[in-house]
Amino acid sequence: MTKTLVLPFQPLKSPAQKFEGVKFIRRQGPKMQLTLTQPDDWHLHLRDGDLLKAVLPHSASTFGRAIVMPNLKPPITTTAAAVAYRDSILKALPSNSNFIPLMTLYLTDTMSPNEIKLARKSGAVYAVKLYPAGATTNSQDGVTDLFGKCLPVLEEMVEQDMPLLVHGEVTNPDVDMFDREKVFIETVLKPLIERLPKLKVVMEHITTANAAKFVLSCEHALLAATVTPQHLLLNRNSLFQGGLQPHNYCLPVLKRETHRQAIVSAVTSGSKKFFLGTDSAPHERRRKESSCGCAGIYSAPIALSLYAKVFEEAGALDKLEAFTSFNGPDFYGLPRNTSKITLQKAPWQVPKSFTFPFGDIVPMFAGETLEWQPCFNSD
Ligand code: DOR
Ligand code: ZN
Q: Which biological process terms from the Gene Ontology are attached to this UniProt entry (predicted)?
């Protein structure tokens, strides 16, 4: 098996032309380029230690900012820990990078409302993440009593205009794995929005037609959703095609084709309620290819190409830039990036794996050929 030890994107040899907004150009033959305002990743797992150093350059080469998930071991439950984590990310960045990590806190039943005040004051923390206890990787310290023990914290989040990012799945063992999101919307999300209509909420990594419809139709302007490349491009068949496919296993788990199509329609409709969040979640190969494999798909090196593929296939490339670069900062009340990134339409092969001293990471679509290649960063 071929192994690759390179960053995925090589800069163009000659500088590309720059364009305002999204434009196609035909330059000498059939090659096309697409220039976008630099995107941000509104849902990213960067990990820590050697894994952080390994994966950070992939996100920093494409994205201007990222909302960094707090499900480390131990989880990031205090502002002090979030600031220390941010410092370690900044230290691990390539020297020429302007990437900005936007930190989050991991909500627990015992968090105090004062922590939200500290978070707001720090200027480093941009959101609080709700993991229902047991829902996913490192969620064992997550929430068991949202409407009880966590209520004072949620009320303080309204005061501080601090968004709640939800992993939208119930964890009751009697709910079918594929229904967890649908049941969460009915039993948690709707009551939450009714109870706290001024709370900003992002439903993370939506996977169902139910979620897409709910977000689209909800009059609550403070509700938005992130969408991953895998939930736009894969359905649950890809977990089993030709044998068990651990590198397509993530949580929330992939759903049936009708759900994928509904999410694509919602995202390419031009609604401002959806924005890019890769949920890129690296795990070492041996932790994925195991008798009890971890959930998480590593998409950071190829995510922008994948989103371009989705929008192109839907005939909606004119809507791509709002999804990748405008809707997210607008929702969070942050300025849009001013730098640009160019994608060139030229076939390129996704590395079969990335090799590091501690082991391999297998990316989404490993070894497959993609069309759009990010190739140019500029101010
Ligand atoms: O597939 C996932 N992996 N889903 C999550 O919610 C967490 C993530 C991880 O941290 O590995
Ligand atoms: Zn995640």
A: 'de novo' pyrimidine nucleobase biosynthetic process; 'de novo' UMP biosynthetic process
